[in-house]
Design a protein that fits this description.
Layout: H1 2-10, E1 23-24, E2 27-28, H2 35-40, H3 46-67
Length: about 70
């Protein structure tokens, strides 16, 4: 039973939020998530959260690249 509980905990996806929220064109410049992804985060299933984290990381990288930051 304990192993099952531990595996459930390890499957949780940590929110990419870094508490630097500022929306630019409906995308947070702090975490890279869209406004709708931020709103829906808590109701998303595990797989959707993982996909959101991956997409947010790509968006954030592209935003920083455009701004000339590394």
């Amino acid at each position: 039973n304990r192993n099952i509980q531990e595996s459930k905990v390890s499957k949780e996806v940590k929110s990419p939020c870094v508490s630097l929220c500022h929306l630019k064109h409906d995308v947070c410049t702090g975490c890279g998530r869209s406004k709708s992804e931020i709103t829906e985060w808590k109701s998303m299933k595990h797989k959707a959260q993982k996909v959101t984290v991956e997409r947010a990381a790509v968006r954030l990288k592209e935003m920083r690249k455009k701004e000339g930051k590394r």
